[in-house]
Design brief:
three-stranded antiparallel β-sheet; alpha+beta; globular; 17% strand; 144 residues; 3 strands
Length: 144
């Protein structure tokens, strides 16, 4: 990865970490879940509203954590808002593959996607949990 792209990705993570988008609780919401990373103390609550057409109409989160966990939650809410559940689940799968280092078989994400800013955490196993915490909360909420 060239230095210019690395710098851009760092700026995206810092921007979303310092000024997270979709911060708050959805009112109303019909799905929610908590995420917690006991290794570093990150925690969040995710709320979202799925309409009758299985579209995520609104999605927000509250909580506190490191720049990576907040940036990931912020980027996730931006990416999933307005998506049908089946597409959101494909994005979940692609993202978890991306940050765990197996990005060869991505179905819906590509290098132009802002979520690629978090690809580098794959080199730091302890940080993968930070990057995926909100995503696993999302998946957990879908099951409830």
């Amino acid at each position: 990865m060239n230095d210019l792209i690395k710098e851009l990705y760092q700026e995206i993570i810092l921007d979303h970490g310092q000024s997270p988008r979709n911060f708050g609780e959805c009112d109303p919401h019909n799905k929610s879940a908590d995420g917690h990373n006991p290794l570093c103390g990150d925690n969040l609550k995710l709320t979202f509203y799925i309409n009758n057409e299985d579209v995520i109409e609104d999605i927000k989160f509250t909580g506190e954590g490191c720049a990576i966990s907040l940036a990931s939650a912020s980027l996730m809410t931006e990416k999933l808002k307005g998506k049908k559940i089946d597409i959101a689940e494909e994005i979940f799968s692609d993202f978890t593959n991306l940050v765990s280092g197996s990005s060869e078989d991505l179905k819906v994400l590509n290098e132009e996607d802002s979520l690629y800013a978090l690809k580098g955490v794959g080199g730091f196993p302890m940080r993968v949990k930070c990057a995926t915490m909100a995503w696993h909360a999302f998946k957990s909420a879908l099951k409830s």
